[in-house]
Amino acid sequence: MNTAEHTRVKAEAARRATRRLGFSEGEDRNRALEATAALLLERRKSILQANAADCQEASDLPIAVRQRMHLDDVKLMEMVRSLRAVAALPDPLGQVRLRRLLDEGLELTQITCPLGVLGVIFEARPDAAIQIGALAIKTGNASLLKGGRETARTHALLAELLREGLGAAGLPEDGIQVLEGREAVESLLDLPELVDLIIPRGSKDLVRYIQARTRIPVLGHADGICHIYLDASADPAMAVDLVRDAKLQYPAACNAVETLLVHREGEAALRAVAEDLRMLGAELRGCDTVREWLPWIAQATEADWGTEYSAPVLSVKVVETLDEAMAHIHTYGSGHTEAILTEDPAAAARFLAEVDAAGVYHNASTRFADGYRYGFGAEVGISTGRLHARGPVGLEGLVTGKYLLRGGGHRVVDYTGPEARPFLHRDIP
Amino acid sequence: MNTAEHTRVKAEAARRATRRLGFSEGEDRNRALEATAALLLERRKSILQANAADCQEASDLPIAVRQRMHLDDVKLMEMVRSLRAVAALPDPLGQVRLRRLLDEGLELTQITCPLGVLGVIFEARPDAAIQIGALAIKTGNASLLKGGRETARTHALLAELLREGLGAAGLPEDGIQVLEGREAVESLLDLPELVDLIIPRGSKDLVRYIQARTRIPVLGHADGICHIYLDASADPAMAVDLVRDAKLQYPAACNAVETLLVHREGEAALRAVAEDLRMLGAELRGCDTVREWLPWIAQATEADWGTEYSAPVLSVKVVETLDEAMAHIHTYGSGHTEAILTEDPAAAARFLAEVDAAGVYHNASTRFADGYRYGFGAEVGISTGRLHARGPVGLEGLVTGKYLLRGGGHRVVDYTGPEARPFLHRDIP
After folding, report:
1. CATH fold of the domain at B3-93+112-219+392-398
2. Hey, is the C-beta of B238 within 8 angstroms of any chain A C-beta?
3. Phi, psi angle pair for B125, to nearest 5°
4. What is the ipTM of this complex?
5. Does the beta-carbon distance from B406 to A361 stay under 8 Å?
6. What is A3-219+382-402's CATH number?
């Protein structure tokens, strides 16, 4: 079998597993997660060995990548905890979204159910494999997991534990499938009839490539070009704190700020922010007005406004009005997370209402855009798409609904034409 | 300007209009609908004239098509009523979906907001233009409307009234745009950066073509291959009633039944159903066992199980078990609407839980799958996709959410690391 055939066989097995997973009890899915947690502890040694082999081959990679790849006892315990935390979340399936009496004896219910088969492409991070697998199992979805090749051994072993966990709970092990190699990703993207959703995590080039390449819906984001707007009335001390947090606490994150917009009356606040960032080693690039105020700042070019630096670099632009700030955000932003710092409630209210993005913040760091921080327990990613799920995506973004209608022989013809019987349409609490 | 440029200009105008529509008051959007209703009455004469001109040119078309195209005073009043009914629905925007205190002074809210720009391709039906335009305006979306060319004059005039209605309410008229001609559809599908959602209504070939042709998310359905399963314990009289309703009340509808599955013990019920349908002029095609029972029924071929007849034709198959019926449905069904007729609560419960479709019914006609009948006020279409909206799509399928975060200078760094401050994550009712 070539890779395409091999991938199709796995996708078909995953699809078959959905039939059973789709109506599984929440208790069984939780038992699968608990069983996997127990297996992680039981097989601790072989997991660390597999990971050590992966890491040994990766000695040429940058230290940040190797840190993410590396597993130790602390991280293993974190994975065990995260499996148990997902098990402890309320069952996302079978939730009633709507219950309505259409007529006497004719009851409509909308309940949540799984999406089906997920194809997840993620980084070389063992904890990601466990977190994604856990969310998929919790939501009754089957998944095809393709992790970064640098930790292929670790991922294969962890996926095996997730499969064993499913088996231990009487659920189909085929609900978890492992894909390996770039070619398998290509084959996966060609299976719209078998795969319901692709979740790509990683570089924006990867995400953009996948979005352009497949007909399967893609959940995620390519760019994270986030702005902070310092309004005229922004508190300078808060501005220093929040811009530092949003830019430097984790510059590579998608929710880090890339451009600071400053109201013309905000020179003093900008001065404090800029000095703080300079002291901490960040690079600033400013528009002409910024450079009049602070000549040590480098000149920003048009390209800067559309750049996600993923590094301690910040572009800075002076605007005349709140409207100009919002227009800039709508022109250059990626619809991820946008913040205003202001003491003026009217400006805050306008910004929150009018800015079009997955997250719009007032006096808070853009770095809060995250499923864990939002209280979703975990996340599979952050969506800048507008359909289905927008913003950090937890369990709710991995389910869909189906309508159940229970009648007693009800016919449409009786509700049609001049003598039509009227509907009740009475919601049941 | 060529068609592609012309379409882009209109899409850009629609996109600009979303900025204002996106945070418009529900009252203003309702005023736009009321104003359009008033204009429909005021311009009654010119509308009927435009429609008469359309209909004159269409004299070669089938009677059913001409009936749908044709406008008279009764239909005009129906359109007025439908505009007012949509205006009377609760505001779908600004609804709070989640409200959660992340920490003292740090409040997360998820509110509903418009999708943005809709591209709607619909039949030569004046009432569809009004209904779709009304739903788009109610949800604060801008829309590009491409109706069937046979009623181009009528659609252009009705869209003009929707635009005037927007203007009368102080909202941007550019929120409604009219596209004409096949080439404009092609251009529309090439604008993923300007159009958020395509809603194609019409033939399955059209829908399939559009799904395969564009990178813009498509909401709708190509096939409607719906089944009714007559369980061993089905009530024969109810079976006659419901199969007649589901097959013959409107055979061209997507929610009409195409295949009847019959339990091996259901010969008597099938006999009653088949005689009833034969008497009413329907054509039946059966599997071998069906033909042993009722030799007058024609032989079904493999192709029949995957065919949406859109005509008074029904395929019939005998199955040994509920499981075989469900397996057949999952193999040949289109995930639209599936029904079981049974007096056995256990069989009904299994069918409702295990069948994977947008609608799963017990003892009710498949023809109930419809936004109006579900109490959504109106619908833009029925989705067999699993993401975003599934089943009949009313106002809720035309909105998305955005997260608002209101803080007092909250930084992520304080919630990170060994000394991390814990989150509260306390839901606010």
Report:
1. Aldehyde Dehydrogenase; Chain A, domain 1 (3.40.605)
2. yes
3. -145, 110
4. 0.94
5. yes
6. 3.40.605.10
